[in-house]
Amino acid sequence: ERSLAQAKRRRSEQDRADAEPTPVAALARELDRALERDELLLMYQPKVHARRHEISSVEALVRWQHPERGMVLPGEFIAAAEEAQRIDGLTLWTIRRALRDQMTLRAAGWDLRIFINISGQLLSNVHFVETVCAIVEDTPDAKLGFEVTETSVIRDPECAITNLNRFDAIGVRISIDDYGAGLSSLAYLKQLPARELKIDKLFITHLTSSNRDPLIVRSTIDLAHALDMEVVAEGVETGATLALLTVMGCDTVQGFFISRPIALDALIDFLRHDDTQRATRESRVSVMRLAN
Ligand code: C2E
Ligand code: MG
Ligand code: MG
Ligand code: MG
Q1: Which ligand is nearest to the CA of 179?
Q2: Which residues form the EAL domain (predicted)?
């Protein structure tokens, strides 16, 4: 009797699904179409060395140029893409596009590592991991980094650590994103092959007006350095924040004060204005001013 009731319920769920697609199913179809029609695009946000003011790398951030809704930010579709099992295709697209843009940058004279955000569920997706390794190994001079959150490692730590080690072994730099905002476990931090730690903007936005944030940031920088990791502060919006982070020994900064995420051609313009290769101290400072 019970199984009959279950079957009935299943059937009525199925009827509903046929009648009107669930939001997730609809989004899955929309994302497939978006990939076919090339509606996704990448913006790049520079990561800048705090003292030398050189651009050390860039982070790729995806956007969806939607035919009706206009520019859609990742906050509105990444979680749904994960739920709809479309995050692997989306991320492979992102990696391929980033590698293509890296060649364009190189042809224009800049050899920059490009960081990609990787969802936690992909760290246990064998097909994804194999495909990424094949792409990277087939691309001479691929210089990538993957930003992962600690929370994403905690789902299946053993598997995540194994795959992060594989990425590290083929030259992909691992960065811990949003550090301090999720489930921070020092036990995992110790085991990850991460070369970089990004302090969440939660601790950076009010750095110069808060009593506690500077203490947290300072000790996080010291911890990361003790573990031989480079420290990035995200969400740097003012010169005062940049100055304080520099005094605290933070290696790299990223945020609207330096540059918003920008399209590839705007990035090339930004780099052209950046004279750091032969720069005097003054022109380096001007790179920072360019942002305002
Ligand atoms: P995230 O990786 O932590 O990226 C930082 C976010 O903060 C970006 O938002 C960036 O535009 C924004 N941001 C940068 N500087 C500042 C600042 O100075 N102040 C403030 N208030 N915000 C700043 P965005 O581009 O909307 O991306 C949001 C999140 O979406 C990212 O957080 C990342 O987790 C995810 N994401 C973006 N692209 C991808 C992707 O290709 N794949 C996956 N799986 N996730 C992505
Ligand atoms: Mg990131
Ligand atoms: Mg972040
Ligand atoms: Mg974030």
Answers
A1: 3
A2: 24-275
